[in-house]
Design a protein that fits this description.
mainly alpha; 12 helices; about 290 residues
């Protein structure tokens, strides 16, 4: 695996930028990053479903099923927010780990999938633990239950132990050329990032630089064969309608939270949860194929 030089340089630049701007500007930049690259990377799922199903046209049932999943996740946060939050975190953990490792693994099996999940738990554990106060406030708003720093430490501990365990069990399943020291370096880099940056800013940097951009490259390669200026524009064009629908929905939520005096950051993460789960399912079957 080649070292992600671009991602590293971009991350260092954003580190430097953190020292130059105020917290309010960090928050604005976080929303811009997530609402542009972050959401666009999940806005072409319909085209990817066509690839998975090996069809030029997609039947209405798949489109309705996809929309239904978004609505179901939205309703889940209203009916059973604790269960919805747990499922969202675990599914997101798996998705982050899958994107990070799927190019390095020779064979997808139960052990490799447990590695994906464990690595994601480690990433989220670092993010939650080093921003425990802010994370606890958001979780309290979502499920009316406050988690302590000690509980976040336990979650991080599970991530560390399980990642080490399943990394070792998958050691022979890594492709030739995989750089294992690089993985240690990246974890240390993420720990520093999450320690120094505010929660939303830290999440935005990881989500966009280390997850969304690599995922975009993979998707463009699947859909168009190679990553060029033309293929990138084709991807954006085919994603535009779904992206606009997402932004419109989030705009309505923004005005609703202002009217009802609800914390927008909390609703924002619930919104991400609603659109993330269907995307994770699509990417699971795409990588499986």
């Amino acid at each position: 695996m080649k070292f992600p030089i671009f991602s590293l340089i971009f991350t260092v630049f954003l580190f430097w930028l953190t020292t130059q701007i105020s917290a309010s500007y960090e928050e604005y930049l976080s929303y811009i990053f997530i609402l542009t690259v972050g959401i666009i990377h999940g806005s072409n799922d319909i085209s990817l479903i066509k690839v998975v199903r090996k069809r030029e046209k997609l039947s209405i049932k798949y489109l309705l099923f996809y929309i239904g999943l978004v609505l179901l996740n939205t309703i889940a946060f209203l009916v059973s927010p604790i269960l919805a939050l747990v499922l969202f975190v675990l599914i997101s953990c798996y998705h982050f780990g899958e994107q990070h490792f799927h190019h390095q693994i020779k064979e997808l099996n139960i052990l490799s999938r447990l590695l994906f999940l464990s690595y994601g738990i480690l990433i989220f554990g670092l993010l939650f633990y080093f921003n425990s106060d802010h994370t606890s406030l958001i979780i309290t708003d979502l499920i009316a239950y406050a988690l302590t720093e000690h509980q976040f430490l336990w979650f991080l501990g599970v991530g560390i132990i399980s990642t080490l365990l399943f990394y070792g069990l998958n050691f022979k399943n890594f492709k030739t050329g995989s750089n294992h020291f690089q993985e240690v370096f990246l974890i240390l880099l993420f720990a520093i990032l999450f320690k120094l940056a505010a929660l939303l800013w830290a999440f935005a940097i990881y989500f966009v630089v280390w997850h969304s951009i690599p995922s975009l490259r993979d998707q463009i390669k699947v859909l168009y064969g190679e990553s060029t200026k033309i293929s990138i524009m084709q991807y954006i064009k085919s994603s535009l309608m779904y992206w606009l629908i997402s932004i419109f929905g989030l705009t309505l939520l923004y005005f609703a939270t202002s009217y009802y005096q609800v914390n927008f950051v909390t609703v924002f993460f619930a919104f991400l949860a609603a659109i993330t789960v269907p995307h994770v399912i699509v990417m699971y079957f795409l990588n499986k194929n």
